[in-house]
Amino acid sequence: MSKLQQGTTAFRKANFALFAGGFITFSILYDVQPLMPIFSKEFHISAAAGSLTLSVTTLTLAISMLITSSLSEAWGRKIMMSVSLLLSSLIVIFTAFSPTFGSLLGFRILQGVVLAGLPAIAMAYLGEEVEPKSLGTAMGLYISGNSIGGMAGRIITGSVTDFFSWRVAMGSIGVISLALSIWFWLNLPKSRNFTPRPLKMKALFTSLFHHLRDPALLCLYGIAFILMGSFVTLYNYIGFQLLAPPYRLSQTIVGWIFIVYLTGTFSSTWMGRLSDSLGRRKVLWIGLVIMVAGGLLTLVAPLVIKIIGIAIFTFGFFGSHSIASSWVGRRAKTEKAQASSLYLFFYYSGSSVAGTVGGFFWTNFGWTGVIGFITFLLLCAFPLSVKLSSIPVKELQTK
């Protein structure tokens, strides 16, 4: 069957539908991040416990993504993505009515399972349905929907909470997401180049273990864990500091700080091009150094410098992530989808584990402890990158 070409109505519909899908997924995933101080106060829990509202979701998302992509091979791409978005939107609305912190966590655990349907499948859909010459444009728009959705979810919940409550804020995200999910279902073109295949879970786990035996991929997975763990830890607890003395910022202003995400749109492209001339390891080092420098800069008291530090840290994160994630595709010679899903598994596991552990450092050592923890994590990434570059390219092929 013919594939979607740039300039056609079907191509535009597919692009905007997947942009909306990415927007929904990541706005729902991260809408709780600016609300963690509110949860700690309302439910009388620690900062680390409050961070579980994100950690449990990213953990179940990470696990579910390993399986969801294989389910779509048997059940179909569009139906899996549509159901994922519709159910996720309804769960957000239910979450807004959580009477206890335990029920809130229960909904967020379920949310992670259901959310896995889109990110695990969207790239496979694009690869099958879009012609190669137009794939870069389509993929770029989908990824921009991810980043803009993550930013918008944080800003909307932060702002609406200031004027009403966190429950109204989450309900608003749910209603917006539900409307966009219906639009996604109605507008995404049906798969024309997809052939259902029998579900073979044994083959899935065999390929996953195959990748885990490759030392180079293990290094990349470790780097993914560190990068996302550091990133989420900083954003989980910066709100606690900025809401407290001496800053006493409003929830709205704290939410709008996430607009520095836009620096990642530039850094991921710029550092990707830089790696072509300097090499991936050197550029990855540059990204890690930028993250460390940005994190240390947030220790300076003046608010303007602190925000500049957050922006620098964010710039380094997105650039480093783009290098590491693309390296996985180059390293894996077979079953690239499973290799990438494992990268995302470690990526979101880092968010869950480090994002929660960071709460211990915030409670006991304040912001200095949080940055110390992040710096330690990032320093661990340097020996992994050295090991990675010393492994011969042909090693995986000879196994």
What proportion of the residues is helical, as a percent range?
A: over 70%
Cα-based radius of gyration, to the nearest Å: 20 Å
Q: Given the structure, what is the number of helices?
A: 15
Q: What is the mean pLDDT?
A: 87
Number of strands: 0
- Overall 3D geometry? globular
Assign the CATH topology of the largest domain: Growth Hormone, Chain: A
How much of the polypeptide forms β-strand, as a percent range?
under 5%
String of helices and strands:
HHHHHHHHHHHHHHH
Distance between the termini: 37 Å
Number of domains: 2
CATH superfamily of the largest domain: MFS general substrate transporter like domains
Largest sheet: none
The CATH architecture of the largest domain can be named as Up-down Bundle
Structural class: mainly alpha
Would you state the CATH class of the largest domain?
A: Mainly Alpha
Feature tags:
single chain; Growth Hormone, Chain: A; 2 domains; disordered C terminus; mainly alpha; 15 helices
